[in-house]
Amino acid sequence: MGTMSLLVVGATGFIGSAFRRTPHSSDIYTSRTADLEGVVAFDPMSGNLQSLARLAGVTHALLLFAEREPDACVRAPRATWRVNVEAPCRLIDQCCEAGIIPIFASSELVFDGDDGMYTESHTPHPVLEYGRQKLATEQYLLKTCPDGLVLRFPKSVGRQPNDKSIFTTWVRQSRSGVDVLKCAYDQKFSLQWVEDVPNIVRTVMRTGTSGILHLGDGLRHSRLELLEALLSALKASGIDVPRVRRVSIRELVFPEVRPKDVSLDSSRLREITKITAPSVPEIVRAVIRQAILHT
């Protein structure tokens, strides 16, 4: 394939913003409102991709928009099904008609969490409504577009103070004077450094990767161990930290029972991209450094 251009649908969210921090001139970034420089207004719920200027040069479309809050999905399954299934499936059809390769952002939560370290060949078995919605769109893309790509994201983390990822949230809570943080010792997942996602996507575009690809560092992390690593680094930086109350994930009240271990094996990702994931200490240092800069 020659020159490639990426359309990012949902470029103002957590992951989409990482693309705008490392922009390519040939790419197109969209959101429902064009209130940021370089972002084009496009409503994925009703818009037609053919209405976008420069679409003729686009080779791939990354579908990032979603209702990502599991609790919202179980509380309003019909409304969120329209967002997480009907709208992306309609855009997948439009991509196919335009000769564009769709890339769908899916989730670790297509798995039930009974085993962990899932590979792309494991059979999904979601226990959350959000996971069922993501799986439905995965299956539609794989059936409709053999050249399409499903990216399953693990727990994605960043360093922007207000990005709502786990490390930045814990830093904000710690610095706000919270006395105690409850943390599940038996919840496990892999990590994806959000700043690596644009490079990963552009690399898999160049390699013509299709099918399903697990992102992340390929490791199994305990939520409690991650919190303790962060608090230790904060304390070493002279910041007072709260006490930690260890709890089981089953003690925490959610509308649905949360899976315990949704860690992903990302060996295929490493083979394809050769991109090395940052370690937890490297991530923690970056998060704390950014937090101090914004003080």
Describe, in plain words, how this protein is organized in 3D.
- The structure is a single chain.
- This protein has a domain at 6-155 and 190-218 and 264-276: NAD(P)-binding Rossmann-like Domain (Rossmann fold, 3-Layer(aba) Sandwich), CATH 3.40.50.
- The N and C termini lie far apart (46 Å).
- Helices cover 37% and strands 17% of the residues.
- The protein is globular and about 55 Å long.
- It has 295 residues and is an alpha/beta fold.
- Helix 3 (77-98) runs parallel beside helix 4 and helix 5 (166-175) crosses helix 9 (280-293).
Task: Give a summary of the structure in a few sentences.
With 295 residues, the chain is α/β, with parallel strands linked by helices. It is built from nine helices and 13 strands. It has a domain at 6-155 and 190-218 and 264-276: Rossmann fold (3-Layer(aba) Sandwich).
Which helices and strands occur, and which strands form pairs?
Layout: E1 6-9, H1 14-21, E2 28-31, E3 39-41, E4 60-63, H2 70-75, H3 77-98, E5 101-107, H4 129-144, E6 149-153, E7 155-157, H5 166-175, E8 180-184, E9 188-189, E10 191-193, H6 197-207, E11 211-214, E12 221-222, H7 223-236, E13 243-247, H8 267-273, H9 280-293
Parallel strand pairs: 1-2, 1-4, 2-3, 4-5, 5-6, 6-11, 7-10, 8-13
Antiparallel strand pairs: 9-12
Helix pairs in contact: 3-4, 5-7, 5-9, 7-9
